[in-house]
Amino acid sequence: MKYPALLNFEEVLSQLDSYDAIIDARSPSEYALDHLPGAINCPVLDDAQRIEVGTLYKQANAFEAKKVGAAMVAKNIGLHIDTLWLDKPRDWKPLIYCWRGGNRSGAMAHILAKIGWPVIQLEGGYKAYRNHINAALAQEPAVGLKVICGTTGSGKSRLLEIMHANGAQVLDLEQLAAHRGSVLGTLPSQPQPSQKAFESAIWKRLRQFDPARPVFVESESKKVGNLRVPDALIDKMRAAPCISLTLSRPNRVRLLMEDYAHFTLDPAHLNAQLDCLLSLYGREKIARWHAMSNAGQMAELVDELLVQHYDPAYTRSIGRNFAQYAEAEVLALDGIGEASFLAAASHLNAEK
After folding, report:
1. Which residues are catalytic?
2. What gap in Å lies between CA 106 and CA 148, rounded to an integer?
3. Which of 136, 152, 178 lies at the terminal end of a domain, its last residue?
4. What's this model's pTM, rounded to 2 decimal places?
């Protein structure tokens, strides 16, 4: 094979996990929005440089822009070689891509191939990858799902985490979305990824699963925070067998107090989130909940939110949205300690 070799995404996909490096040659802002799983960002033009070169194209001409851009590209590629790849052996095999046209990845691939490395350039770049993701997620996942249901605070996420640690196949959508799935689910100091990055993470997890084994997933709604779960996946989840996880209300309050401890330290943040419920409950009730939050009455507030908001909402939606919920296996937790979750995880892992 002559290098750099230009391969389409279907050719690349079969060996995606075997490349020694996947190099995203786009700018940092493009990379941050989404990228191929496992890719590192080695921009041939950073964000400011792209703006400078683009301005030259508009205000001067293509020749002047290309001269300035080429100098920048050469310096940046040289810096990446000097700081990242000087120690790489002759058989080091990277995959390089950019947005679509191939100019940025092509420049890098050409130089690395001239050094002697067996470089692969992705034809069609990131756009070809996105086309594949869109098509793949539009299809029903080729795995069998089991849905963990349960009222807010019943420990669904903790159970999935322990099951994953003990070898079960788990699709934790809340973890991938950096959100706990409710109106209070925003994680402190951890913004949600972009919609495209969320979809990439789902695709990556789905392709890693063994279709002969079940995949456990939580009974999410169509959105996790601001992110949409792909339609084909949510449809399959809603038709799948269910496990109904139960936990006493006092223990649910204890668990939520642990998981949402950051609200105790920042009542103003909690109150801002509670304001999202204003249209449902009116100013008087929201003001009451604000007062409880400000007074540090967190356990009482959590209990009241469960009784008046979360549990009724769950009861209204679960049977309507999950077709097999009426036949769900009931799995009762006797506490929120690790032993209780380990016992539940062992039970589910042992099922065929």
Report:
1. 98
2. 47
3. 136
4. 0.93
